[in-house]
Amino acid sequence: MNYLNEGLQIRKEKIQDAVNYLDQTEVLFQQFGQQELTHITQKFDDIQKSLESGEEVKLVVIGEFSRGKSTLVNALLNILLLRSAQEATTAINTFVRRLPEGVEHRFIRIHFQDGNIQDIEWLENDTDTLEKWSTELDTTHASARQQLDRIEIFTSHPLLDQGLVLIDTPGLQSVVEYHEGITHRAIDEAHIAIWVQSTQQLGGNATEWQFLSGTIRKNFNKFLTVVNMWDSVLEPQDPFDQQKSLAERESQKYQHVKNNFRKNLFDISEQDLDVMTNNEHLIGVSAAWALSKEQDKRERSNISILSKRISDMLSTGEALDEIYKKPLRTLVSIQTELSEFIQEELQQLNSSQTIAERQRESEKLDLEIKNLQQELKITNDNARTEHHRVATYLIADLKEKLISPLEDLQADIESQVTVRYVEGQIVKGSRNIQLPSQLQQQYEIAVVEVNSTMKRQSKDIDAQLADLRADYAKELEEHAAHLKQSISGINFSLPSLDLSFDVDFSEINSYFSEQAKLEQEILQKRQEIEKLEHDIVNSQASPMALENAKNSLLRAERARTSLGGRPQAQQITRSRTEPSWGIFGWMGFTKQVNYIDYDESNVLKWETEYKETQRAIANKEAFLEKVQKEEEDKGRKRMSAERIQQKYEQEVAKVERQRKRIEDQMNASRQQLIEDTHQQLLHNTSGVLVRFIRQLQEQVQPHIQQVFDEQLNLLQRQVKEQLEEPLNAKLMQRKQVQDLIVQGQAKIDARRVDLQQGLSKTKSLISMTHDALESSY
Fold first, then answer.
1. d(CA 564, CA 557)
2. How far is CA 260 from CA 196, 226, 772, in A?
3. Which domains can be identified in the chain, with CATH numbers?
4. With a cut of 50, which residues of the chain have pLDDT below it?
5. Which chain positions lie within coiled-coil regions (predicted)?
């Protein structure tokens, strides 16, 4: 802050010196100048306004959101004034300046687009009021912010009290068309512009370059590029970066920024590029460290280097040129002209011409002036016609060679880059959706042709302007010296077109993943239901089987009953041959003997059949019991399965509803993605062309006419300032000298003394003003 304070103080002292030189010059002009020299009076007013505007030093901070612009402003002031956050904060161009004279308490002034102004009290520790009106963090005033023009914050601070005005701008992607003009105007009017980048996104994005390329070309000497979050370079977290030296890390970061400047500003000289990216215009800073309580971090933050650079620019260089050097140069010119005018009058007073000779000379000069005015009228009419004719031709040529080809290309893009085309690319799974290859080639060819045509157009405009100046000067060379004029050419180029658009599939992929899970869950539930249905079918009651089992048991029991009781063995009389024994033993004789035998075959048969019947009955009973048990089990199982089936069906219905909702959301998101991608692709391609065509139609074409009109006006003004007014002033001076001679020698001597003193003061003032001007370089 000491550097900034010192720079502001030096600037203030220089401006005060210039005000003193202006006051002295005006006093001398009132004494010795002529009222016919109206252009000098106007220059006095212009110088006064320039010096008054120089009491304020405007420093504008620009760049995308999340770069730390507000934090950098706070770091430069060394106070926590503006809200800073990683998300988008500043939504409106915000001017921070000193309190008006007589006001003691800080406040916020809201400027509406309709011209109305509202002052709002801003109490200490009140963060809500500023956030409500100036940031995107507060949604309650979103609609009201759309009606705002700008916001002014009036507060007390040593730097602000010295005239520093800080301008915090919105992120360039969030700048609406109305505020875009305000941001451009703030940059144009600022004495210093700081473009804030970050180590996370070096070199600027396409939006920034589209917004700033033309502005940087015009004002590159007052631009500073600050790479914020430099602490990630000083103390990197990445192990790969940690292996590099600090010098290597810094060199790589700076080189990346330089390469991006060279890529986007391809049509300017290497010398200018070197100036834009040297160590005086490209500085790495850690705004967060600058606000740290740790002294080591504050010292390493590079905020002092940035402050020193800003201080140097405020007290020297281009930032001081408009409000100090230019007024001083104009003052030296006026003082020199006044000195010559005084010397001319002294020569007239010292001349030995008689009154009659002086009268004849005045009459001759008067006639020359009248002839000059007639010649000027004819010359100006001819010049006006020629300037208009050439401007009209160049405007038509611009439309034919630049606008029409771009309109054709834009029409081709809009006819081919349709929603269906984007949908097809998304269906293919393309993550980077580009223009059709033929269109891309067509555009690349158009870029080369258009840029080439533009350069030719620019040269043609410069050449035509130079020819018209030469013709004008030639027609006036009998009456005037060579006209000194400086008409700048028109500089414009086709903005780079973002030919592709990265599609974010994350939301749809999330839906796909969730839907896949639900589909799997539904499949599992359905498989469970199918199994349950199979079980239910198998568990259905079988009355026929039970009846068959019962009948079978009855038949077995009837069969057992039909067997009756256990039968008796049958008696059978059988005979057998036995030996016939006598008293003296067997003598070889035999005899037939009858005996009773029992036939148990029927008993055995009965027992067998009985056992079989009993076994059959037992089996039938067991089977019947089994069937009955199975029927009971089936009933219980069927009831359980039906309950589970009902539960599963309810769960399936629930999951189906979830799946349907997810599917609907996915389809809606997919459709929205298609539409958003289509709109973004058109915005990045056709939209760029539309905006550039509109720029050509609304800015470049009128500017061509304007620059020719301005040249004509400047030429005429130059002639008026350098010929008409000086000649009329000389004529009036001669008449005044004649009147003075008639009044006598005493009056002549007194006037001569005044003129000599005035000449001495004027020469002394010229010397002081010239020395002040030289010391500022």
1. 11
2. 14, 14, 40
3. 60-301 (3.40.50.300), 354-417+434-482+685-743 (no CATH), 510-681 (no CATH)
4. 84-90, 135-142, 145, 174-176, 178, 479-515
5. 355-382, 508-542, 610-672
